[in-house]
Amino acid sequence: MLAMRTRAETGSEAEALVAAKLASQGFAILGRNVRVGRLELDVIARRGSMIVVCEVRARSSARIAEPVESIDRAKIARIRRATAQWLTTAGLGGVSVRFDAASVVFDQDPPRIEYYEEAF
Question: Listed GO molecular functions (predicted)?
């Protein structure tokens, strides 16, 4: 039986799993839970001149819907706005940015990760 987690623990573990997946693909992890004003970017990674911003969604099960289905237009707009601000602050103008999404479902051990490149 899988251990019960708080929502924050589930989210943090999901982000760690996604960051590890990106790192295994040669990406340098630039940040997790990066605050940009009142906004947050879950995982920021870089490989060469490409920056990947990944929105991570986690659920204890996918009985109702896949977690990434909860990323709506308003959330996408906030992620894009936060990314633009973060790039400016980090002095990274002119780099390529890819917006990915990941679902982590904790209904088995190990958790199931679905990764979507260029999700939005």
Answer: nucleic acid binding
CATH of 7-116, one of 3.40.1350.10, 3.90.1170.50, 1.20.1250.20, 3.20.190.10: 3.40.1350.10
Q: Shortest CA distance to 17 belongs to which of 102, 119, 108?
A: 102
DSSP class per residue in 10-51: HHHHHHHHHHHHHHHTTPEEEEEEEEETTEEEEEEEEETTEE
pTM greater than 0.85 (yes/no)? yes
pLDDT of residue 1: 41
Tell whether the torsion through CA atoms of 34, 39, 43 and 44 is positive or negative: negative
pLDDT (tens digit, 9 = 90+) per residue, 33-79?
999 999 999 999 999 999 999 999 988 766 666 667 789 999 999 99
Tell me the residue length of the chain. Answer: 120
Q: Which residues pair with 53 in a beta bridge?
A: 44, 99
